[in-house]
Design goal:
Blueprint: H1 3-11, H2 21-32, E1 36-44, E2 52-58, E3 66-72, H3 86-94, E4 98-102, H4 114-129, E5 135-145, H5 147-157, H6 160-164, E6 172-178, H7 190-196, E7 217-221, H8 232-263, E8 265-268, E9 271-274, H9 275-284, H10 288-303, H11 307-323, H12 329-334, H13 341-374, E10 385-386, H14 402-405, H15 417-423, H16 428-441, H17 449-454, E11 470-473, E12 480-483, H18 490-508, H19 522-534, H20 538-543, H21 555-588, H22 596-608, E13 610-611, H23 636-655, H24 671-682, H25 689-697, H26 705-721
Parallel strand pairs: 3-4, 3-5, 5-6, 6-7, 10-13
Antiparallel strand pairs: 1-2, 2-4, 8-9, 11-12
Helix pairs in contact: 2-3, 4-5, 8-11, 13-21, 13-26, 16-18, 18-19, 19-23, 21-22, 21-23, 23-26, 24-25
Bound molecules: zinc ion.
Length: 729
């Protein structure tokens, strides 16, 4: 069977086989009736006598412009004649299209790319003239068979042909192609070699090479038993287009979800508040009705509308993960830790169990404080804690309610870091300079001048920015920057130390090969910054002149500092764990789309022992109201970082020869700590993370023991305070 016969059998009945071209036309007339006519025959679209085309139009006059199809016939680039394809023109015209059938020059008169360029000229002619036939020049579609499908695919995918012919490639809206060769290099057939084999860059002859995410929609059809042009051509091109399209859709949804989050608003007393404003107010507001309004409006306005798109995002991301050989996206995320996804899940569980007793005592103590402040109606003495009462929009860190939960008459903190900074007339830049000073005291080189010129250190007045602090290494060498809306207060003082930890880490590994330009695992990056932040101890503040000897805390005040730390560091752990456990469940399908909200509430209760202040339904999607979920940033890194930072901190204190209680240690100015730290940092991602851990700490195991040791003085006291209370929820 010839290719043309194959085409015919696809389009019509077996009765037409063996007919002359005229017979074919007649045959089709019977099928289509007299609903189509040849509007123009043999219009010239170029200088060569071969460059002529026919235009077919519906018989019935239309006042509105009609969509256009340009059909390229096949024939192995060596044969074919537009007159043989009148039946195609009639068939399309009968269905309401203006159909154009061009000839093109053939081998051996010409070779690639001449026949594709001829096709582009035909499109140019259509663009310029088709309105005369009541065709719509903005709705041009391409169709083709075999060698003609090849021309159609090249015109659809490799933009340069239409650009060179003087038309915008975007005017081609779609392509419907039958049995074309799209991926056939190296050439195994003489016909391919004759037509294309001379071209010096053979990939440029292959349509699949030009797949792009913004390609026109394509319909690819192929007979499965075709031995002339094998069906794998269409299969491969389809797979490549799907992949590019999925990447484009994923990209669009991700951008959309992130920008929805960025534009999100909540309210208080009807007043519109940005996310930054709500975060700040929930830290200080103590009115339960207003807290509830802020919490509810934020979750309803930001999370709920994302639900559909998030579900779609999960589908596409999972398809991509499976193509890479992972069970789902969650397994892919868990695979980045030099162990199997299951081993990694088990590791996080072991760490959580090591610290969970601390969390339960802290929860019990905090709940009692909230009950004392707000009464049974707002916060009962038993059961879960109301999520909006903890001084944080997500109840992830509770340090802001220290003043509420610290027992009356207990030691006040010896100092207020915010007040110290204000008294010393710190500016945002000086906050950052001080953090830099910590690193240089360890022997690290100062930040480059460009850091100070190019960073965003304070919030610009003229535009809205996401204030979520971040650290960048723009050229992977020395173009380090931070983006931060720095205010002069205790939180940002600590955050500055954290962010610069990222910058110094980035620079330490900048001589590694490109693929290793990252931390040993993603928890390491967060942990390094936090290790330095932990070093903001009274001893350190004294060393840099912020605190006087007379202001150093006594034992009771010391416990207050620890409690303040625990309310942030310990309280965070179950949240740090559940954000990804929740998403692992969604990616694996364990959590169905119909229970996104219920599963979130269930896990918040199970891990954190908190409950929403108002009833939630499956209209809601509170997880979406947490930045990292719409932004698709894995979260377990923060859990690991919380554990690792104490391990790093203890190692630094051991190296520096510190003997007192761990939480008072400062290794400011210790060059040996800096040298050993740099050894770990400089490895980047070039070695498995246990190697990096060992270089600095001497052990290959992540352990929560240093964290437990750090808070041990507090744990005993919490247990005393909780005597007689029924802890847990
Ligand atoms: Zn960070």
């Amino acid at each position: 069977m010839t290719r043309r016969d194959a085409l015919l059998s696809g389009l019509s009945s077996a009765a037409l086989f063996g007919c002359s071209p005229a017979g074919l036309l007649n045959g089709f007339s019977r099928i289509t009736g007299d609903s189509a006519r040849l509007a123009v025959g043999g219009a010239s679209f170029g200088g060569d006598p071969r460059l002529k085309l026919d235009v077919w139009a519906p018989n019935r006059r239309s006042s509105a412009p009609l969509p256009v199809v340009v059909f390229f016939y096949g024939g192995g680039w060596v044969s074919g004649e537009r007159g043989e394809y009148g039946f195609v023109g009639r068939a399309f015209a009968a269905r309401g299209f203006i159909a154009v059938i061009p000839d093109y020059r053939l081998v051996p008169e010409v070779r690639f790319p001449a026949f594709v360029e001829d096709g582009a000229r035909a499109i140019r002619w259509v663009h310029d003239h088709i309105a005369e036939f009541i065709g719509d020049p903005r709705r041009i579609h391409i169709s083709g068979h075999s060698a003609g499908a090849y021309i159609g695919a090249m015109l659809s995918l490799d933009r340069h042909f239409l650009v060179d012919a003087g038309v915008d490639p975007a005017i081609v809206r779609a392509a419907a192609l039958l049995s074309g060769p799209y991926d056939f290099y190296p050439f195994t057939e003489q016909r391919g070699r004759d037509a294309l084999g001379h071209w010096p860059r053979p990939l440029e002859t292959q349509p699949i090479h030009f797949v792009r995410r913004d390609a026109p929609s394509m319909l690819l059809m192929h007979g499965t038993a075709d031995t002339v042009v094998r069906p794998r051509n269409s299969e491969r091109l389809a797979a490549a287009l799907r992949k590019a399209g999925a990447a484009a859709e994923l990209n669009r949804i991700s951008t959309d979800l992130s920008s929805q989050y960025g534009r999100g608003r909540g309210t208080m007393g009807g007043e519109q508040l940005t996310g930054n404003e709500i975060e700040a107010r929930m830290g200080t507001n103590r009115n339960p009705a207003q807290l509830r309004e802020m919490w509810t409006s934020w979750n309803n306005n930001v999370g709920s509308p994302m639900r559909q798109e998030y579900q779609r995002m999960v589908e596409i991301a999972n398809a991509g993960a499976r193509e890479l050989g992972f069970a789902d996206t969650g397994a892919m995320w868990r695979s980045k830790y030099d162990m199997s996804p299951d081993e990694f899940a088990a590791l996080t569980e072991r760490l959580w169990q090591e610290v969970r007793p601390l969390y339960v005592e802290l929860h019990c103590f905090t709940r009692a404080g909230l009950n004392r402040r707000y009464g049974n109606a707002v916060q009962p003495a038993e059961g879960p804690i109301r999520a909006d009462l903890l001084g944080n929009l997500w109840a992830q860190e509770w340090g802001n309610v220290y003043d509420v939960v610290a027992p009356p008459g207990s030691g006040r903190p010896a100092y207020d870091l915010t007040a110290l900074l204000e008294r010393a007339h710190y500016t945002p830049e000086r906050v950052i300079r001080t953090a830099e000073g910590f690193f240089t005291s360890l022997g690290f080189e100062a930040l480059p001048q460009t850091f100070w010129e190019r960073s965003m250190i304070t919030q610009p007045r003229d535009r809205e920015v996401i204030c979520h602090a971040s650290a960048w290494d723009v050229d992977n060498v020395n173009d380090l920057r931070i983006k931060m809306c720095t205010r002069v207060n205790a939180d940002d003082f600590v955050t500055a130390h954290h962010e610069l930890g990222h910058n110094f880490y980035q620079r330490a590994y900048n001589t590694q090969p490109f693929l290793y330009l990252d931390s040993a695992n993603d928890g390491f990056h967060e942990a390094i910054g936090d290790t330095i932040a932990l070093s903001v101890t009274p001893e350190y503040l004294q060393q840099i002149g912020l605190l006087q000897q007379s202001q150093m805390p006594n034992a009771e005040q010391d416990r207050s500092l620890l409690l303040r730390q625990a309310l942030d560091k310990i309280a965070f752990l179950p949240f740090g764990l559940l954000v990804d456990r929740y998403r692992w469940g969604i990616f694996s399908g364990q959590i169905a789309p119909g229970e996104y909200q219920a599963a979130w509430d269930r896990m918040r209760l199970e891990y954190q022992g908190i409950r929403p202040p108002v009833a939630r339904t499956e209209q809601n999607f509170d997880a979406g109201a947490k930045y990292h979920v719409p932004a698709s940033v894995p979260y377990t890194r923060y859990f690991l970082a919380r554990i690792l930072q104490f391990q790093f901190f203890k190692a630094a204190c051991d190296i520096s020869g510190w003997h007192g209680p761990l939480h008072r240690c400062s290794f400011y100015g210790n060059r040996e700590v800096g040298r050993r730290l740099n050894e770990m940092l400089a490895m980047g991602l070039s070695r498995p993370w246990p190697d990096a851990l060992e270089a600095f700490t001497g052990t290959r195991e992540i352990s929560a023991e240093p964290m437990v040791e750090y808070f041990r003085p507090l744990l005993g006291w919490l247990r005393e305070q909780n005597q007689g209370r029924r802890c847990g929820w």
